[in-house]
Amino acid sequence: MRIDSAGWTHVGRRSHNEDAWIARGDLGLFVVADGLGGYEGGEVASRCVVDAFSGFCERLARDPEATWPHRPRPGHSREEELLRNCTVLAQRAVLSRRVGQLREMGSTVVALALGSRRAAVAHVGDSRLYRLRDGQLEALTRDHSVLEEMRESGVETPARGESPYGHLITRALGTENAEPTVRPLEVREGDVYLLCSDGLYEPLGPERLAAGLGQGHSAGVAEALVQEAYAAGGRDNITAIVVGVGTR
């Protein structure tokens, strides 16, 4: 599987950047983590998360017989179980640093694992994965948030940016509720994936995301989307990873 990938981040209009990311085409691993705003150590938490994901995948690349934190479950793909185990390790890493001034820190995460034939996504919180296929944009994750829970229960809600509950998440690494949602993905040649923090998707919206993803190679697209989100008034940290499969 030929992969063209790149990431870009911008501090936005914040004083420092609490997002972290990795794009490792050699490992088939792509991760965006967003430290919880309003708490000390958001940048520490997000870095713990991406380091835990990359560290475990690097260890497996060096030693395919290395021990996994949890034994893979029957009926689940290697990619699903890889991301589930990485999330367990990331949770441990954040909790181990959650002392003193960092005692309230936490992070969201969204991760994509691409194998030779299969793929999987895992997420905790409101960082997202989108896929552009045949010109159509689809969100492959559903936020772990109060707003989404209200929608699922049938309550009519305003747009995320217009709701007082828009930024209230119900799961995060470093908290008691850190259970990831993990699902397998079917990959086709020509697919383009976007992993991003809320600082990107909130100011742009689906139509502008789709238009941007359809332009050029991943490096230019990632930077252009981040810059467009900033120009659109984005105040939060802004991070994007763009992954093209096959034809890109």
UniProtKB/TrEMBL annotation:
**Database matches in Pfam families:** PP2C_2 (PF13672)
Q: Which domain of life is it from?
A: Bacteria
- The segment(s) forming the PPM-type phosphatase domain are 1-245
Q: What is this protein called?
A: Protein phosphatase 2C domain-containing protein
**Organism (species):** Archangium lansingense
